[in-house]
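Page 37, continued from 36.
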């Protein structure tokens, strides 16, 4: 049986993490900078690298949003594992779709 102090500590651990306002402002600034970089990349002809670079920037923005705004950074490990598993599943679905799309015999016109 837990004593009173242990119960209070357990209750404090179960409460939600309060993220300070400067963290939100910093993430907002990061998202604005990455958005500007995305727009800048769109106006530069990088050939086949344009799309992968834009996707990498989008993944960085999504990671910041998930970790901070969705509080995954401060959640129990199981939540992080669920997020990672979901992303892996999404990547597998994209790879299956791309494997079908890239191996089709497209007519040359």
């Amino acid at each position: 049986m837990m004593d009173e102090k242990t119960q209070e500590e357990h209750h404090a651990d179960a409460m939600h993490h309060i993220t300070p306002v400067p963290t939100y402002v910093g993430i907002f600034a990061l998202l604005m900078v990455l958005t500007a970089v995305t727009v800048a990349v769109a106006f530069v002809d990088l050939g086949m690298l344009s799309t992968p670079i834009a996707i990498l920037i989008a993944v960085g923005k999504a990671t910041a949003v998930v970790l901070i705004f969705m509080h995954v950074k401060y959640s129990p490990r199981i939540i992080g594992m669920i997020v990672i598993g979901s992303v892996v599943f999404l990547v597998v679905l994209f790879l299956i779709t791309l494997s079908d799309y890239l191996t089709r015999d497209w007519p040359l016109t």
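Residues 77-102 form the longest helix (26 residues). Flag for discussion at group meeting. The mean pLDDT is 86.
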